[in-house]
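**User:**
If convenient, please work through this fold.
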Amino acid sequence: MSASLVGQACILVALVAAAFGSVTAFVLTRRGDPRGHAFAVRAAVVFFCAMLAANLTMVSALVGFDFSVQYVAQVGSRATPLVFRIVSLWSALEGSILFWGLILSGYVAAFAWRYRKEEARFIPYAVGSMLAVGVFFAFLIAGPATPFTEVSPVPPDGPGPNPLLQNHILMVVHPPILYLGYVGMTVPFGVALGALVSGEFSERWMAPLRRWTMIGWGFLSCGIIIGAWWAYAVLGWGGYWAWDPVENASFLPWLTATAFIHATIVEERRHMLKAWTLSLALATFALTILGTFMTRSGVFNSVHSFTQSDIGPTFLVFIVLIVVVSAVLLALRSHLLVSTGRIQSAVSRDAAFFLNNLLFVALTFTVLLGTVYPLIAEAVRGVKVSVGEPYFNKMAVPMGITILFLMGVGPALPWGQATKQSLRQMWPSVSTAIVVVIFCVAYGYREPGALVTFALAGFAANITLREMFLPIRVRMREKKEPLLTALGESVRRAQRRMGGYVVHLGVITIFVAIAASQSYVTHAQATLKAGDTMQTQQYTLAFKEIVQGQEGNRRFVAAKVQVTSASGSTFELLPRVNYYPRSTDPIGSPAVHDTALGDLYLSLLAHDPAAQTVTLNTWFFPLVSWIWWSIPFFVIGTLISLWPVRARVQAPAPPPPRDAEGASA
């Protein structure tokens, strides 16, 4: 049997399993029949197995050069290295939807199996909702976006994947991690719908809702940062974030998911924001589907997006359906979502968290408006409008700086109402901010926006570190525990809080890196002959020669540049241009020398081998690599928050004393 027929059969099995599981979960659970849950769990496992088989079939076809499969003929090539043949699975529209289906089925099966013995009524509805999403994606793969169409006559070779996607190893890890974040938001969406349908609102639904959101959020955070790193290391334009529509598409659900995580803390502690919390969970999923539409409909021009396709209208219908169902269920259950707590004081942790949420939502709306407004303007008024970096920076930067301030203030304030003592405890952090400003001004760093960012970063970092280490110090002093024991016990007793503080340190690092790399960047451009030199920042660049060569499926032209630092040390950089056989446009590969204080970034703009001349673009970005170095903070913080802790088993109480007659005293 051909790979096309095997793949199509697997997708049909997945479609039937998802549809059966979703329908039986809702219908039987509604009737009070416990078999609804059991059928949904089994259907989720079959859905996953069928999607896994379909993906393995496609990978086998890509690796084995089976050009009778349409998708292989579209992105395959005999000259493509093995790792990029496998990566081709998500390099184009149809394959990316197929890979999306695999991750979705994995999440649904993992959730269903994890809670297969759970008796809470919302669980079957949650699994049924996730399987309903699976029906949509299986339908796409079986119909409008099928990658398994047979090709006749069979071509002898293919064009290979997009050169941009095989020009750097980061493309091996960036899409899967980003997809794990995107698709992971299906689980909290399903849990939220399950709670709304069942009307069951208790800690039993909040715990899985929070935990599975954290899983998706952790992957999405790392995926966004790795994507920025890829743009920086591959595109050669000297930046890492351009407010590109598809970049924004990943940023939007991250904002609402972050707001949701903070809202759950308020809901659990103060019994407020229940409806708000559910709305954020539902909105996060809706924004992931909107982001998928942006990436795959072809309506946005972006280096990250796929080509024009016919699935745009299908996605729009699905988005409208998600919004309508969510709004109707929220309205029907509004009487069950009334908050019992309230904010007692504007100077409190409650108020700081609430303001934090408002800012995240306002930033989401701002980014969404700037992203979709050009499309709306063109559709309604017939005029082309461009919304670029100036709009986003003008609107987003003040809100971002305010969020940074609240990141420091929130943990320092008590719940309910602040006291004079709690306010006095902020003075060391305020002093840190002042010292940071004095230090920066003394060394000539006087750009106002950067100074404010550095000061608030020092303020927030001081409070974050104090809150992290205070319980450790208390245990060491009062319980005489050694450092490692006190650290372990403090983390075990407050996992989510400690994990959150670690993540906060990563966010603070990113704020500092962005402010420094944007405010104090230096740029120079020059055309050099062999032996010529140029100066940028503390580096002297001497162009030596043009180097040409062949690497596997590409040839390259590079400029050999000897760099001498202010300290006298020397090293070589080779900014280059890569040429792929079936691509008319060359792909640049900048050369980057990264240090803790900044990156020297060289991009080859033009070259003339005959005359031995090159045109170089050079930048020096202070602290930019701190952005990528923040990834461990997000990973470790998320793992700490999610790490299961075995509950301590308390020894049974001793029997009561007995008197001489044997009776209890």
Remarks:
- The longest strand covers residues 539-551.
- The longest helix spans residues 349-381.
- The chain has a mean pLDDT of 87.
- The beta strands are 522-529, 533-536, 539-551, 554-564, 570-573, 576-579, 587-589, 591-594, 598-608, 613-622.
